[in-house]
Amino acid sequence: MPDGASRDSAMAEISEAPTSSDPPNTKSEEEHFDPKTMRKTKPGLKRLFLTLTVFISFLIALPFLLKSIEIYRAPLPFEDIDLLSTEMEKNHLVFPCQFQAVFVNFDDITAVNELGLLIDSHMQKLTLENSPPCGTCGNNVTVAVTIDSSSNCIHNESGNGDGKWQCGMLNGFDKVNDHDEDFDEYLESLLDSKNRKVYTVVVMNRKQEDVRIVVGQYRHAWIVGNDSVEKAVEKMAEIFIKVFVNGGKEEGSIRGEFMPVGADGKVVLSFSLLNSDPHDWVYDWDFKELAEILLAPVVDALRPVADISVESQVLYHTPKSSYSYWDDTQGSYIFSTKDLPFFVNSNEWHLDTSTAAGGRSKVLHFVLYVPSAKECPLKLQLPNGEISMTNGFISPMWGGIIVWNPPACVENFQMQHLSRHKISSEDLKMISEVFMGQLRQLFGLKSESLYVGGFATSVLLTSDKGFAEWELDVLSRHHTCFNLLQCGTTLGSLSRLVQSLPRMIIMDEIGKQVKYSLEAAKLSLGNVSLGYSDASAVSSRKARALAEDAFYHPSMMSVSYYSFEHCFAVYSPFFLPVSLHVLLAVIREWKRYKVENRKYLAWKVKVKVE
């Protein structure tokens, strides 16, 4: 027993020996250390570094992803477009106009400056009270007055330089009224209005002669007869404003919807000869002769306004769709103006065979209709009951039709089937004159050779090319106004469309077209301020055509546009789940690192305190 007790006590001493060998404060540290709020080692950065590496790699790849789905957009000058649109909407184009009044054989007047003010005052009365119509002169006019008498040659202050009237040049023309064309050419040789662009009215005081007014084919007119100065001034002002500026139209401007020019500045004149029933007779024409008589001068004269091309065709089996009836009084078949909307047979008249018919070029049809023997002669009855002298009519923005009754139906004899005939040169010349009148009406001008004004009736001389110089000026001014308005509207619509669709493709070609369109529009506005009507019309036509080309570019009309929502819906199933998990992992690791670091800092503070 004593031996066992001694062994137990010895073992107890041995087990307690290690405990007694530990540092004195170890026990206290273990008691104050909380593993939930403290840690003895510094937290590692490996996990945080790995998650940040994956996250940064995603951020680096993001620009490449955005680049792969980027929509190319050429830069457009939106500010310049807005300036042009605003200017065209608020400010009407006003051309500077130079007028010249010449009083010949008025010995009792010398107050030349007062005459200029009087003419200007009458012109202001004839101008519309509101803002001047686009394409006119408005108040931007200068009036030069000359008194050419046997005793005086007086010019007012507005006349200057080589533009002054040379006194005494009309002494040799005693019979002015007998040869209007010759006198017109003589005045042109004196005035050179083609180069000077000055509108001149010459008043010649002739005793014992009735007052007669003639407007020449250039840029001048003359008044001959026994007339007072006051009445002559009124007639002058009317010719200046109503004829030379407004073109003989009361509204003073051609309405835009009746501009027979395509958006690309081109016009196709399509001439068709329609044989209603070739079993009765077949007629053909020498279109080359018609082109030489009518078309060549017209194409050249209207070149500033439109790029004109010509084509022709002969069609058969083309009956009309309207009704006609026999009139014993007239001895012919009659169709009235009420039947005109139904005259064109769209099912049988295959007129739209031009290559330009499907484009943006304007096609004007000129139809020569040869009726069948069953309705020949066929005549057009006007609303007043009279028979039309031309036997033709126009349809605005479509073209014109002439019903030509062949000599065979008048002679009333039987003809062989399918017999071919050719329209004579005399008939072709008369037909060309009617076509010319219809073309003038389609362009908004008068077809008759008289202008009935408020003070007098003026004779309008015709030109070999179909349009007088002052009429071409009117067309150029009005077409310039219309083209620039359309250009501003089209570019404004394009600007709003592009800015509203940020992912629409804008090719470099569109940017160039917009740039060149703005440059052409600015050039046209500069020519307007200088009074160059022809040059302004050419530039405005180019500006409008380029604006239309940009707006209707094939890339703008393609299906390549898609919205950001569509792009997000396509790519989000591929990248959103992974990206979300990586982002959440970074956030989680960052929070864990901050918590573990706070634990380590708390332990260090605890150790320092103890």
Automatic annotation (TrEMBL):
The chain crosses the membrane at residues 48-66. Keywords: Endoplasmic reticulum, Glycoprotein, GPI-anchor biosynthesis, Membrane, Transmembrane, Transmembrane helix. It is found in: Endoplasmic reticulum membrane. Residues 27-37 have a biased composition (Basic and acidic residues). GO terms for biological process: GPI anchor biosynthetic process. The keyword Acetylation does not apply. Residues 17-26 have a biased composition (Polar residues). It comes from the Eukaryota. Residues 1-38 are annotated as: Disordered. GO terms for cellular component: endoplasmic reticulum membrane. InterPro entries: PtdIno-glycan_biosynth_class_S. Pathway: Glycolipid biosynthesis; glycosylphosphatidylinositol-anchor biosynthesis. It is a multi-pass membrane protein. Belongs to the PIGS family. This is GPI transamidase component PIG-S. It comes from Solanum stoloniferum.
